């Protein structure tokens, strides 16, 4: 059975009072361990799709099933917990919390899960070393470069060993060399940790390097 | 077309006009009801139209009255009643026509038409009857619990059966303070619990349900109690005396006001319960832990920094200007030093200088930081003002109480009519009552006192010098030169030489002008002693040893030309100073025996008692009466004897407290603004936290904790500065004009409970203030803040 299934999902957003139907009955299956890229024109609804997939936004109609369980029929607190345990996000901007150091930022999901600070920090430190930032654990986001911050954000997404990693143009703000480093990290994560990953991107080379490619156009998702 | 696609439309002119017409109808009904007395008075006073179902109740009443009124022959009744009802109904009809369905929109069906409904929306219910029940029932239950507990624990039983009933039940007659405290705390807990249960069941705040519940189920009780205050027959009918409903009632002398305060407190507890329930349940589970929430909140506001706290404390203690000057001097010096350093660094290593400059910039504070400091200061000022003013007022009250109780007894035992001839026996019995530590018999009367220089009306008291010291401070209050013991040995009032040299000679030299012969060789005239107050001595222009005449209009003597007022000469044996102008100018003391002779009293007027604990005086005096066998004996405690004075003082203190709380409310407004600014500033972070899996309840907790931090910091600062100021007033003193205030310096008395209450109220208000912004924060959609910039 598929890890994630999307069944007949509808979703619109509103621009200047006009309704734009970006997802029109999308259905899709994602298996465990897959590494998927998704491309599409700007405004086609890639981010919206990812938000619905990551339970950040509820669809107007349709269902998202995780392991056969309908995610949106849970209550708010359960959905928040599901998001905390199961899904890791990386966004175009790093979205680190500015008041906290890199280490604290990475450990935050574990703290939200009410894990003890000691082990949480230990694992966060290990992850930061793994993404090559072992020397910058006590720096705040303002003191990190874009590539460094994005690597911290990736470490934060991985700290609870989620089943699914959702990345929304993770290299959109980075230069090609730095971006390639992030891509390599994503591939490593998928291969070494077995984390299912969906990467939304504009970068054709990156998209082609992924085993499965999706295209979002006209409110429908197709294999590319 | 699907009916759900049509929206409700309100035509406001119709609604307003309808409301107006209904109001006119309600007034007509009210007038009609008032015309026909009976329950009319009650219903009119109810003002229940305000609550909502008043109109209905009134029309029922009116119907009942209309039937009875014809018998009674009320003229205006029926016609106005019918007219009022019709107008009232017409008004509601107008309102009903003002609400209608709007026409459908022309948009066609969407591509998703017919797809299964999103499950959470399918489960959505917008009104919870059980929650309404929990809130309304909870507050009603809390009120009943308060009344019942108060009744059971203290003397709340119908007052005319008071003594007997308490005896019969074997007596949970706790002191009123404790009884009220227990009843109040338990009812607050009930109210809190019902709010908690209601909110955690509904999984949302459900304020509409809470409002309706409080208004329809909670409000009638205080309204009924207020009515009982107005309509004594209602109290009699229910066999309940309002004074006993709350302890506060007796304290401030306004029972209904006291009960409204209690009601407000219960509603507050309910709101707190609802809020806590909502956070706890979030949307399903009870989780009151504060782990990362506090972590995040502390980083956001960072109130507990020494610089901020010390700065705010300095402002509270020394005003705004001096600390500001010191701050600028320090900052100026610091900046100068830092700039010099950076420049020196720059000469050696320009890049190091650049990063040093960057660090300096990081030190600069955001506007939110300033707002936070201001809010802390605001709460601090409020708490400080509350503590200082209440402490000074308590000081005045304590001073007054001490002076009154120094001169007067804590309780007085007497008979309803007549004197106490057998006061010795009564004193033997009273002695056995636990809590009585001193007693003395007395006779009291009103007389005129005249010296050569002046005349004044005074209250004269016959006292027993041996025991009077065990009840009042009179012996200590005698100024040097006089002596209480001289009452019993009047011969010693004048120094023996003075008797011989002064008055003795004068007497000896006195010649009878008619007979022209010296009267008998002078023996010093020994007059009974009298003790007078300092002010009276000044106005009579007498000193110790002078002679005064006491004239009693009662008990006339038969003179040659008919009855003349009884008059007797006394010699001033001492002057006392109690510190109360009223007493120092109005009281004189003579020996009990002299008073018995003068006023022809057998025994004494009554017995003055001193009790161990003055707050327990009422209970002990009740017990004394019981020991004495009740009627015809009675005992009145100091609170009863000076009721007007002390209830006025307490009411004044309460009003001052409420007025000063306005400062705290203003500060709370500041906190609302600050936390809203924080929410706006942290919109993106809120979204990120939600994406990381923080539930709505967690976000609420974070921002509540932020508001609460400001409140706690402000409260603690206010507490410290308030106490410091009180200590300053106490030790250094602020001089007062003794001619005006009769007290040399501003008195201060720090009451721990009252002080703690000021801080707790401040923290509570700030907590309440941050509820709204916190809810606002939790309603930020995660997607909103995550849109790419």
Automatic annotation (TrEMBL), chain A:
Gene Ontology biological-process entries: lipoprotein localization to outer membrane; protein localization to outer membrane
Highest taxon of source: Bacteria
Keyword presence, DNA-binding: no
Xref: InterPro entries: AAA+_ATPase, ABC_transporter-like_ATP-bd, ABC_transporter-like_CS, ABC_transpr_LolD-like, MacB-like_ATP-bd, P-loop_NTPase
GO CC entries: membrane protein complex; plasma membrane
GO molecular function: ATP binding; ATP hydrolysis activity; transmembrane transporter activity
Keywords: ATP-binding, Nucleotide-binding, Transport
Domain ABC transporter positions: 4-224
Family, similarity comment: Belongs to the ABC transporter superfamily. Macrolide exporter (TC 3.A.1.122) family.
PANTHER family xref list: IMPORT ATP-BINDING PROTEIN, LIPOPROTEIN-RELEASING SYSTEM ATP-BINDING PROTEIN LOLD
Protein name listed in UniProt: ABC transporter ATP-binding protein
From TrEMBL, chain B:
Domain ABC3 transporter permease C-terminal per the UniProt entry, residue ranges: 658-782
Transmembrane segments: 12-31, 80-99, 127-149, 178-198, 210-228, 257-281, 308-330, 369-393, 654-680, 708-728, 756-775
InterPro entries: ABC3_permease_C (IPR003838), Lipoprotein-release_system (IPR051447), MacB_PCD (IPR025857)
UniProt keyword list: Cell membrane, Membrane, Transmembrane, Transmembrane helix
Coiled coil stretches, renumbered: none
Stretches assigned to the MacB-like periplasmic core domain: 372-625
Keyword Endoplasmic reticulum in record: no
Major localization class: membrane
BP GO annotations: lipoprotein localization to outer membrane
Entry annotated with the keyword Cell inner membrane: no
Pfam family, one: FtsX
CC per GO annotation: plasma membrane protein complex
Topological category with respect to the lipid bilayer: Multi-pass membrane protein
Compartments in which it is found: Cell membrane
Similarity comment: Belongs to the ABC-4 integral membrane protein family. LolC/E subfamily.
PANTHER family according to UniProt: LIPOPROTEIN-RELEASING SYSTEM TRANSMEMBRANE PROTEIN LOLE
Protein name in UniProt: FtsX-like permease family protein
Organism of provenance: Corallococcus carmarthensis
């Amino acid at each position: 059975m598929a890890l994630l299934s999307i069944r007949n999902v509808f979703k619109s957003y509103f621009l200047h009072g006009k309704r734009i139907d970006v997802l029109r009955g999308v259905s899709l299956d994602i298996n465990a361990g897959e590494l998927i890229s998704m491309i599409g024109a700007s405004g086609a609804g890639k981010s919206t799709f990812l938000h619905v997939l990551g339970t950040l936004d509820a669809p107007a109609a349709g269902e998202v099933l995780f392991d056969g369980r309908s995610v949106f029929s849970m209550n708010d607190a359960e959905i928040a917990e599901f998001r905390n345990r199961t899904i890791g996000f990386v966004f175009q901007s790093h979205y680190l919390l500015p008041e906290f150091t890199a280490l604290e930022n990475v450990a935050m999901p574990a703290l939200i899960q009410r894990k003890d600070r000691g082990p949480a920090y230990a694992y966060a430190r290990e992850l930061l070393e793994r993404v090559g930032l072992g020397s910058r654990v006590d720096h705040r986001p303002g003191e990190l470069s874009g590539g460094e911050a994005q690597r911290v954000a990736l470490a934060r997404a991985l700290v609870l060993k989620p089943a699914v990693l959702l990345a929304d143009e993770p290299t959109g703000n980075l230069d090609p060399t730095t971006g390639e480093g992030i891509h390599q990290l994503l591939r490593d994560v998928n291969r070494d940790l077995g984390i299912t990953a969906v990467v939304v991107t504009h970068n054709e080379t990156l998209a082609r390097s992924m085993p499965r490619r999706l295209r979002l156009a006209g409110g429908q998702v197709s294999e590319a | 077309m699907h009916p759900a696609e049509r929206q409700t439309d309100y035509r406001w002119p119709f609604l307003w006009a309808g409301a107006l017409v209904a109001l006119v109808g309600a007034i007509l009904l009210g007038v009609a009801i008032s015309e026909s007395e009976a329950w009319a008075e009650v219903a009119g006073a109810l003002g229940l139209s305000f609550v909502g179902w008043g109109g209905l109740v009134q029309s029922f009443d009116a119907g009942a009255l209309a039937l009875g009124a014809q018998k009674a022959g009320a003229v205006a009744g029926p016609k106005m009643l019918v007219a009022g009802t019709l107008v009232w109904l017409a008004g509601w009809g107008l309102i009903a026509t003002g609400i209608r369905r709007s026409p459908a929109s022309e948009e066609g069906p969407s591509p998703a038409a017919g797809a299964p409904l999103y499950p959470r929306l399918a489960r959505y219910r917008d009104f919870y009857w059980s929650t309404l029940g929990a809130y309304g029932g909870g507050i009603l239950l809390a009120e009943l619990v308060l009344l019942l507990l108060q009744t059971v624990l203290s003397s709340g039983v119908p007052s005319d059966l008071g003594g007997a009933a308490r005896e019969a039940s074997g007596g949970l007659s706790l002191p009123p303070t404790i009884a009220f405290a227990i009843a109040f705390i338990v009812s607050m807990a009930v109210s809190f619990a019902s709010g908690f249960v209601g909110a955690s069941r509904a999984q949302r705040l459900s304020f509409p349900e809470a409002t309706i519940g409080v208004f329809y189920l909670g409000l009638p009780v205080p309204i009924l109690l207020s009515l009982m205050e107005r309509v004594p027959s209602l109290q009699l009918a229910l066999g309940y005396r309002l004074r006993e409903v709350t302890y506060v009632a007796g304290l401030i002398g306004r029972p209904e006001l006291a009960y409204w305060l209690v009601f407000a407190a219960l509603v507050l507890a309910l709101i707190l319960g609802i809020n806590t329930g909502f956070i706890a349940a979030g949307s399903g589970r009870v989780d009151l832990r504060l782990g990362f929430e506090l972590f995040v909140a502390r980083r956001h506001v960072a109130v507990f920094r020494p610089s901020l706290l010390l700065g705010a404390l300095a402002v509270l203690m020394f005003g705004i200007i001096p600390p500001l000057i010191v701050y600028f001097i320090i900052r100026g010096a610091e900046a100068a030093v830092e700039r010099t350093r950076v420049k020196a660094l720059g000469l050696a290593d320009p890049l190091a200088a650049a990063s040093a400059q960057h660090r300096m910039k990081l030190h600069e504070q955001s506007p939110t930081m300033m707002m936070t400091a201001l809010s802390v200061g605001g709460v601090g000022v409020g708490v400080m003002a509350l503590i200082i003013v209440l402490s000074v007022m308590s000081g005045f009250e304590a001073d007054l109480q001490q002076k009154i109780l120094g001169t007067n007894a804590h309780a007085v035992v007497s008979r309803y009519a007549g004197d106490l001839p057998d006061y010795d026996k009564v004193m033997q019995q009273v002695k056995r009552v636990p809590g009585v530590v001193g007693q003395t018999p007395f006779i009291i009367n009103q007389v005129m006192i005249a010296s050569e220089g002046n005349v004044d009306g005074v209250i004269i008291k016959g006292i027993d010098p041996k025991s009077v010291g065990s009840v009042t401070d009179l012996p200590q209050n005698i100024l040097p030169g006089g002596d209480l013991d001289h009452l019993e040995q009047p011969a010693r009032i004048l120094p023996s030489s003075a008797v011989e040299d002064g008055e003795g000679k004068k007497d000896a030299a006195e010649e009878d002008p008619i007979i022209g012969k010296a009267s008998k060789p002078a023996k010093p005239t020994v007059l009974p002693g009298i003790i007078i107050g300092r002010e009276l001595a000044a106005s009579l222009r007498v000193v110790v040893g002078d002679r005064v005449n006491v004239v009693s209009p009662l008990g006339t003597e038969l003179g040659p030309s008919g009855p003349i007022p009884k008059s007797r000469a006394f010699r001033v044996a001492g002057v006392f100073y109690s510190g109360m102008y009223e007493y120092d100018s109005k009281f004189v003391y003579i020996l009990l025996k002299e008073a018995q002779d003068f006023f022809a009293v057998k025994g004494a007027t009554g017995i003055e008692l001193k009790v161990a604990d003055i707050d327990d005086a009422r209970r002990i005096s009740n017990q004394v009466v019981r020991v004495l066998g009740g009627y015809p004996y009675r005992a009145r405690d100091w609170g009863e004897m000076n009721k007007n004075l002390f209830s006025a003082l307490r009411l004044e203190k309460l009003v001052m407290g409420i007025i000063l709380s306005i400062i705290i409310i203003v500060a709370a407004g500041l906190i609302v603004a600050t936390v809203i600014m924080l929410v706006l500033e942290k919109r993106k972070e809120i979204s990120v936290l939600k994406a990381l899996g923080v539930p709505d309840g967690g976000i609420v907790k974070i921002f509540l904790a932020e508001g609460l931090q400001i409140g706690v910091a402000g409260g603690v600062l206010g507490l410290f500065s308030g106490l410091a100021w009180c200590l300053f007033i106490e030790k250094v003193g602020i001089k007062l004009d003794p001619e005006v205030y009769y007290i040399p310096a501003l008195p201060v008395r720090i009451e721990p409970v009252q002080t703690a209450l000021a801080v707790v109220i401040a923290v509570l208000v700030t907590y309440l203030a941050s509820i709204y912004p916190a809810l606002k924060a939790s309603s930020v959609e995660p997607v909103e803040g995550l849109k790419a910039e």
